[in-house]
């Protein structure tokens, strides 16, 4: 018994301390990254459906422009609310500086989209109809891609950072190519990838739980 007690009370070796720190850091990162079904998948579904509706308008005129944009922005509002809820839930599990970061990051989404609305409302009357849709789409995706990458850098979540970078690349390519190509790229390239990543990561977490 005394030997066991001595083993329990002995100080950790440097290797054991390093391993313990790494395990705690990994756990914290998983928490700060949030539930992938709440952080990745809602945005993927939003872009699949919302930009899919825009593509149907641009390519085949199956939906009116106003209807397609209404679908897109209604889904984006839901996704922002889901993201804010997910980050708030994560922040409630941690304290101190990490909690403050989560709260400020969540508020940054609202500030960013307030700027998008102000810019687009001011400039839309000066542009043709198709270019107006592209303006709203590109500026919205610019905010989302930047905040995604910033969140990944802030919490050292590589998947989140690279998803933001991937979205930015698609957004730039689509902005150059025009509204129809932009809608297709974001719908399939971003929507499909974000949805798949969210589901795959969630399944991996369940398997590792």
Written account of the structure:
This protein is mostly helical. It is 88% helix and 0% strand. Helix 5 packs antiparallel against helix 6, helix 6 (97-123) runs antiparallel to helix 7 (129-155) and helix 7 packs antiparallel against helix 8. The longest helix is centred in the C-terminal third of the chain and has 30 residues, at 179-208.
How many H/I helical runs?
9
Number of strands: 0
Shape: elongated
Query: Mean pLDDT score, rounded?
Result: 83
Count of folded domains: 1
N-to-C terminal Cα separation, in Å?
33 Å
Radius of gyration: 21 Å
Strand content: under 5%
Biggest β-sheet strands, sense, barrel: none
Low-pLDDT runs: 3-7
Structural class, by secondary structure, is: mainly alpha
The SSE order reads: HHHHHHHHH
* Helical fraction: over 70%
Short description:
The protein has nine helices and no strands. It has helices at 2-9, 14-33, 36-39, 41-60, 65-92, 97-123, 129-155, 158-177, 179-208.
Jot down its keywords.
mainly alpha, 9 helices, single chain, 209 residues, disordered N terminus
What are the SSEs and their pairings?
Elements: H1 2-9, H2 14-33, H3 36-39, H4 41-60, H5 65-92, H6 97-123, H7 129-155, H8 158-177, H9 179-208
Helix pairs in contact: 4-5, 4-9, 5-6, 6-7, 7-8, 8-9
